[in-house]
Amino acid sequence: MKSIISVGILSLGFLLSCSKSTDPVLVDTFDRKAFLENYADSYIIPGFQTLSTQTTLLNTTINDLSLNSDLSSAKQNWKVAYEAFLHVTLYNIGPAEEQVLTKSLVEEVATFPINTEALSTAITSGNYQVGSVARDLRGFLALEYLLFSEDAQGSDAWLAVVKAIAQDINERVADVNSAWPTFRETFVNNNGTSAGSSTSAIYNEFLKSFEALKNFKLGLPLGLRPGQTEALPGNVESPYSENNLLFSNTHFQVLKSFWEGNSGLGFREYLLTVEGGEALVNSTELQIKEVETAFLNVNETDFEASQLDGNQNLIALHTELQKLTRFFKSEMSSLLGIAITFSSGDGD
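^ Imelysin-like domain-containing protein, sequence as received from the core. Prediction below:
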């Protein structure tokens, strides 16, 4: 009896051994260095170069202003510069990430909503110092208020603050732009998938930027965030220039382009190299089309204070973005084995 059992165990062991030898071995063949080179050379470096060019032009235009100047050129240059910023808004890594004394670039130059009451008080009191005021008193959206709201205009102090903010934005962007070509080598060579890798960093910043669009440019103003009982019209992104639809759509198209990778290796191509990736790509692309369709049903007037509460066009857009979350976030993270290293508080 013992001999039969022994033979059985040996046979089982032999079968298991044979089975193991023929099991498929999962080999990571994706060229993440080329993948990171595509993001550095096709997206990040040219994106910051364009932004720096536009903020320099904006700063020059504003620096030439007087109290009697027509603000048309300054307003147009602001709009173009902010659109350029949206193309790099998800690259808060390396030179643009939080440092010892500063927050990330997006926090330093694009915090909203602006505290217009505190900003006006600081201007009229003569106590405005751009380097020391709170982030909701400076940056692109503070400049929007000062350029587009007639209530804020018309004094020497106003003009001085406008010039100070434009210069501050330009200097911060120039610092990031000049540092990226040197940082590029570090970025592309850090091509693992651990929490400290470049792949993990850009993926997590992509998610943060997506959450910012969904939660703070739409969810919060609409009153859809957990615990909210009403809409908050004052929390829309650009209430004075009335470019909310343009900016939100641009932001989404930037995220879509990042995911696709365009002509080079991007996250879409990365997904196609892993088991289950093709199905996820197909599902993601279908939902992206749903979001784009929802954008087509939105008008700029939907963002007006009197139209925001219960606005079905914007609620539908937010819903479609929410549906996209699981594809960009949980499923993509799981298939690629990249950990989500931040807490969005989104409940998904």
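The chain has a mean pLDDT of 92.
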